[in-house]
Amino acid sequence: MVSGLFPVVLEGAETSRRGRVLVGPIDLTLDGTGICVFMGPNGAGKTSLLRLMHGAARLTAGSIRWACPLAQARRAQAFVFQRPIMLRRSVRQNIAYPLRARGVARRIALERAEAWAERVGLGGMLERQAPVLSGGEQQKLALARALITEPELLFLDEPCASLDGRATREIEDILLTARANGTSLILSTHNMGQARRLADDVVFMLHGKVHETGSAADFFARTRTHQAAAFLKGDIVE
Amino acid sequence: MVDLWSGLAQAFWLVVTLNSELIEIALRSLRVSMTALLIASLIAMPLAALLAVKRFRWRRVIIAVLNALMGLPPVVVGLVVYVLLSRSGPLGVLGLLFTPTAMVIAQVVIIVPLIASIAHQALRDLWQEYHDLLISMNVSQWQKIHTLLWDTRRALLTAALAGFGRAIGEVGAIMIVGGNIDHATRVLTTAIALETGKGDFALALALGFVLIAMAISVSLSIHWLSGTEREGRW
Ligand SMILES: Nc1ncnc2c1ncn2[C@@H]1O[C@H](COP(=O)(O)OP(=O)(O)OP(=O)(O)O)[C@@H](O)[C@H]1O
Ligand SMILES: [Mg+2]
């Protein structure tokens, strides 16, 4: 599947709230091949930038241009939030929701939801109310709900933050399968091992700006800035 | 104490003997208030949802006004509706004064702010929770509202029941616009007021007990029908 979204070009893109700039100005071009990992210390602006690109945060300056019209670009994306948002419905209904919202027939939507629940390991709890799931189960649900629409681009904001080693493996397998099927992935993570396992490209952020970018191989072999080097070593980044 | 007991006893007899007058009055109460509740809900719930998800200029003002109107004195509502419906009023040609329809109108005016305020609070909280997700999924305005209404249905039910309680127990407004006419606009509350005025406390109390019993059974049956308290989710 050739993606019609990319390249996406950000020029001086900024999002601010009550006069405070959360992230930006950002100049960045992503070509959407494979998995792009955003790294950086807490508060660096990873979440804000991902949300901005997705359109969940308001662009207050600069521009973001996709290779296709914006409405089409928005429809081809999905987002897994750092704190999973659970609809007050059953697991099955949650996963089926995006399909139902797009007008897919109820029976088909529910069938596909079941298949996806199975794939992320929630097959045994279809009827359970989503808000009572454990944190890790909620993240799996959010992932299934994002992938069910077969997006061209999937944003994941720390998708494995509260998962154990095995669940992380399972999720990474699903992500790698998605990539193999042509889905572009943009994800933020604090898990260095995960970044090394998944990244094709790396964007290193600091203080609300993009500090360094490069291919994963280059970035992990020799960082160009001492801040990124310090971050990789696990030191405190100033 | 004697009055309470004899009231209870009389209520019991009125009910078991299926007293035709009592049944007529009780059913009218139920019909008027149920109709008012239905209409008020159809106005208040979408209004509340709109106020929760849409940003427009008069939003804050409307919310403040709705909250203020929750405590609207029914007598005043009755008076205003009376003036509007009276023969010389703007809606006089409809000839609705002293009919059950006029009572429904008055009750709708009284309970719309109550239902809308309670519903809005619940919808707004859920919207804050769902906001990012629904924005991310690009759902239409209509789907947003539909989703929020469906997922807050318990709170909406509570809002509706509060509205029903206020409507069925209300006397000031419907007394004015209905006139408490026998076999036409007499309902439980106006009958109670009348019997109390006449000094027939036992009968007034009996009607009162019937009113309470009716309010409770409506509440129970709505809860039972919608199955809200059975699932035990939380
Ligand atoms: N809605 C908001 N209102 C005000 N400030 C915000 C808002 N959202 C984020 N911020 C601030 O913007 C900065 C960047 O936050 P962001 O969540 O993007 O960081 P992050 O890199 O994702 O951090 P973490 O690794 O902890 O998830 C932080 O200082 C945060 O407090
Ligand atoms: Mg974050």
TrEMBL record, chain A:
Keyword terms: ATP-binding, Nucleotide-binding, Transport
GO molecular function: ATP binding; ATP hydrolysis activity
SMART domains found in the cross-reference section: AAA (SM00382)
Domain ABC transporter positions: 8-232
Pfam families named in the record: ABC_tran
PROSITE patterns membership: ABC_TRANSPORTER_1 (PS00211), ABC_TRANSPORTER_2 (PS50893)
Top-level lineage group: Bacteria
Name of the protein: Phosphate ABC transporter ATP-binding protein, PhoT family (TC 3.A.1.7.1)
UniProt keyword NAD, yes or no: no
Entries under InterPro entries matching the protein: AAA+_ATPase, ABC_SmlMolc_Importer, ABC_transporter-like_ATP-bd, ABC_transporter-like_CS, P-loop_NTPase
From TrEMBL, chain B:
Keywords of the record: Membrane, Transmembrane, Transmembrane helix, Transport
Listed SUPFAM superfamilies: MetI-like
Compartments, as annotated in UniProt: Cell membrane
Chain segments annotated as transmembrane: 30-53, 65-85, 91-116, 155-181, 201-225
Major localization class: membrane
Any one biological process term the GO annotation gives: transmembrane transport
Organism for this UniProt entry: Tropicimonas isoalkanivorans
Name the record gives this protein: Tungstate transport system permease protein
